[in-house]
Amino acid sequence: MATSATSPHATGFPAEGRCGYYVEKKKRFCRMLVAAGKRFCGEHAGAAEDFYIQDINAGLKDETEIPEQLVPISSLSEEQLEKLIKKLRKASEGLNSTLKDRIMSHPALQSALNDPKNGDSATKHLKQQASILGNIEKLKLLGPRRCFVEFGAGKGKLSHWVDIALKDAEKVHFILVEKVTTRFKVDGKHRKKNSVFERLQIDIQHLCLNKIPVLREGKLPVVGIGKHLCGVATDLALRCLVETYAASFEERNEEPLAKRIKNDKTEKEIYTLAKEGNEKNVPEKWNPVAGIVIALCCHHRCDWRHYVGKEYFRALGLGAVEFHYFQRMSSWATCGMRKTSLEASNITTKRQDNQNDDSEEHDDGEYRITDDSADNLPGLLSIEEKKKIGHLCKLLIDQGRIQYLQQKGFSPALQYYTDPLVSLENVLLTALPNHSSSPETTA
């Protein structure tokens, strides 16, 4: 049927009252309604800003590697499933599957943690925030004259606690990145003269940090943070930080302000300081990304195109098909922790009760239901075996991220940052530039 001459497809314009964002994958404009006087819907509002560059953090799209429609794991034959599991176990040989405990706290949250009005959900989230904050401080990333970029910020509570912990530290900027409209935000409550909060409603996939004025002009070192950054969002955030942002300084051959100030010291002065035992006063090499602290989550929501560890997978003889099944199988890591039918019947009530408390948008995997249930698999795998396979899938995906960061000049680590009874998604990814005091790697 011929296309109408007045249709948006024929004219190259969106329909009246609809979003003006062109969805390349679907070869059409977004169909969401927009508010009067607006050009884009809430999710694509960032497209109107200077820091929006479509797919800048998406990664290269290789059509030959994107698999065709794949069957669910439950539809695989016993032989096919066994072959996948053998590949997984072979690829995971030599990896340290036992991570170190880095469960910490921070005095900034002590009062909130002791509040008797807290519900169970609020207490769990506060414990996680306290541990993330404690790890940020341990890595010496909690300080003045820097910009904290919180990815998947939601209500902005992680940045809120970082700001509380910093007290009156000078020249601290917070950029909160969230692609959807969020209710009950806490960043609007901050009125300190030494810290500035800026919220960007944009998908991380299209965020160009070096076009944000405070980073372009002030050149503050960036600390990337996130609490439960779901699946693909972690890969987009890593690429946003260490590839499209940090690399931009090298391409422009630009020397940031902080580095120029440190370079005022001559080599002789630096040598004298070191010789006299004042190594801590020796200026370190400056890096636009000072560090990364991200609580990982939802590996089943990863995507091969955006995944930063493709080279790692290919070196193991794995590709897009194996990645697809491994990321689906990663949900088995929590299959032994399912709620009973009686408990499940109370979920709706619990969520309704939580609407007015301090609960977050994320369920931490407690009530997750996935398409590839571990209950209907070919063969006879016990619950414990499924859990181990799920954890191996998570570990392998995360190891690809570790190698990616190493190749980009960072010293990364994986560690448990909270008890599994607090959150089943309890792994924290940290990374510092190689010149800094490095955390232990997990090869």
TrEMBL record:
The Zinc finger CCCH-type TRM13 domain covers 17-45
Sum up the protein's function in the record's words.
Answer: tRNA methylase which 2'-O-methylates cytidine(4) in tRNA(Pro) and tRNA(Gly)(GCC), and adenosine(4) in tRNA(His).
Q: Where do the record's region annotations for Disordered lie?
A: 348-371
| EC numbers on record | 2.1.1.225
Q: What is this protein called?
A: tRNA:m(4)X modification enzyme TRM13
Molecular function, one GO term:
tRNA 2'-O-methyltransferase activity
Instruction: Outline the extent of the Methyltransferase TRM13 domain.
Output: 127-431
Write out the catalysed reaction: adenosine(4) in tRNA(His) + S-adenosyl-L-methionine = 2'-O-methyladenosine(4) in tRNA(His) + S-adenosyl-L-homocysteine + H(+); cytidine(4) in tRNA(Pro) + S-adenosyl-L-methionine = 2'-O-methylcytidine(4) in tRNA(Pro) + S-adenosyl-L-homocysteine + H(+); cytidine(4) in tRNA(Gly)(GCC) + S-adenosyl-L-methionine = 2'-O-methylcytidine(4) in tRNA(Gly)(GCC) + S-adenosyl-L-homocysteine + H(+)
| Top-level division of the source organism's lineage | Eukaryota
**Record field: compositional bias (Acidic residues):** 355-364
Family of the protein in this entry: Belongs to the methyltransferase TRM13 family.
Q: Set out the biological process GO terms recorded for this chain's protein.
A: tRNA methylation
